[in-house]
TrEMBL record:
Residues 7-89 form the DUF7673 domain. This is DUF7673 domain-containing protein. InterPro entries: DUF7673. It comes from Fulvimarina manganoxydans. It comes from the Bacteria.
Length: 105
């Protein structure tokens, strides 16, 4: 992952770790990559309700995901994505869901 993509992903993760509506939208976007089957997909109209820079970062990350063909835990970000699941999808944690399990549908 090049520096431009890493920077965009870092910004999205930082926003998603917050507690705002924009944070929720970033978390939904990122968790759709992590495991859309369990965490839910991403509503692209949510990009209408984030700052333009955030939407631009989503586009950068989306393009990378389309080329990468792997989940985010294959890189340095696994723990941060697990934390997002705990924060935004606590019902998965309570149900004993394996946070590292991916649903390849």
């Amino acid at each position: 992952m090049d520096a431009h993509v890493s920077a965009a992903l870092e910004r999205l993760l930082t926003i998603a770790e917050g507690g705002t509506g924009q944070s929720r939208r970033c978390a939904n976007f990122l968790l759709a990559w992590w495991n859309a089957g369990d965490c839910g997909g991403f509503d692209f109209t949510d990009m209408w309700n984030v700052d333009q820079r955030v939407a631009d970062d989503m586009v950068v990350v989306f393009a990378q995901v389309s080329r990468l063909n792997e989940y985010p835990d294959k890189d340095l970000y696994g723990a941060r994505f697990e934390d997002l699941v705990r924060q935004w999808r606590p019902e998965l944690v309570k149900s004993g869901h394996d946070l590292m399990a991916h649903n390849d549908g």
